[in-house]
């Protein structure tokens, strides 16, 4: 009886490993497919100015999925942040003001919460209520998008044009005026 149980546990563990490898390979293939699509445009995919921002798909706090490619044709302010980050707290009112003033001008503000660094999602919700944040917040619970964009400092903000090309990258908190100047200089 003990041998059968050990065998079942072994089969279960092997199944988990196989599923994990499959899931990882599936995600890599999705990214490679996206890369192949965008290489045709003649612009390299990457995380630097002048490169096409890599695509990703994340869930919002309401569990609605959103991908970056869905936003092509719009200018995007993409902000990586965390509740425990003092510069993120200082920057958030500026981002909210920017969102309110630009939301009707073909501009989308997306916040990516570095959820894998948070104590709980409830902390994120409390933070958003405190700062009256109304723009979409996506959860990066496994650091996949933070790793994809090589996020090393918080906050980090990307300004992306209507073609999906990164026009500016800011590490550290930025002001409303910086956001406005950057966005106004893009198509």
From TrEMBL:
Keywords per UniProt: Disulfide bond
Keyword DNA damage: no
Domain Thioredoxin intervals: 47-187
Domain of life from the UniProt record: Bacteria
GO MF terms held by the record: antioxidant activity; oxidoreductase activity
Keyword Hydrolase listed: no
Gene3D superfamilies, A to Z: Glutaredoxin
Any Pfam family: AhpC-TSA
Protein name as it appears in the record: Peroxiredoxin
Biological source species: Paenibacillus algorifonticola
